Amino acid sequence: MNIIKDCKIGKNTIIREPVNLYKCEIGDNCKIGGFVYIEEGVKIGNNCKIRPFTFIPTGVTIEDGVFIGPGSVFTNDKYPRAINPDGSLKGEEDWQLVKTLVKRGASIGAGATIMCGITIGEFAVVGAGAVVTKDVPDRAVVVGNPARIIKEEVEW
């Protein structure tokens, strides 16, 4: 079952079932795989491919032509906790949103984890399973945990 609530979805975009999309914007000519969860305020450009089992929380912006491999996860909180020091359940006012930007043409491999507060550069490549904790320069290739640069200029 799809849950698509208050979203702006561009022309010719294909969305596979099931998905959870809340108050997000998805551009033209995108392909969104099944079991994708996109939260409020997320902006996705045109001509993007987001493969199944991907989580994109509030605070993430994805520019045009980005590929996100299956099982990729983004974060938006540097210090996540369920409760406050007094034991009360944390609410919306009890945490700080930390934004992330994925620039035009970047590719993120399957199972990558993208920590919040970073920028992945234009046409950069994040290897499968990488844990990205720092900015990735334009056209760089990063792999590993934590992700490290193995190539300065990706070839086409």
What does this structure look like?
The structure is a single chain. With 156 residues, the chain is an all-beta fold. The chain has one domain (3-79, 95-151): Hexapeptide repeat proteins (UDP N-Acetylglucosamine Acyltransferase, domain 1, 3 Solenoid), CATH 2.160.10.10. It has no helices and 21 strands. The strands form 4 sheets. It has an 8-stranded mixed beta sheet, with no helix packed on it. A hairpin with a 4-residue loop joins strand 20 and strand 21.
- CATH homologous superfamily label: Hexapeptide repeat proteins
Domain tally? 1
Largest sheet: 8 strands, mixed
**CATH third-level topology:** UDP N-Acetylglucosamine Acyltransferase, domain 1
The helix content is under 10%
Topology of this protein?
Layout: E1 3-5, E2 8-9, E3 14-15, E4 19-22, E5 25-26, E6 31-32, E7 36-38, E8 43-44, E9 49-50, E10 55-56, E11 60-62, E12 67-68, E13 73-74, E14 100-102, E15 107-108, E16 113-114, E17 119-120, E18 125-126, E19 131-132, E20 141-143, E21 148-151
Parallel strand pairs: 1-4, 2-5, 3-6, 4-7, 5-8, 6-9, 7-10, 8-11, 9-12, 11-14, 12-15, 13-16, 14-17, 15-18, 16-19, 18-20
Antiparallel strand pairs: 20-21
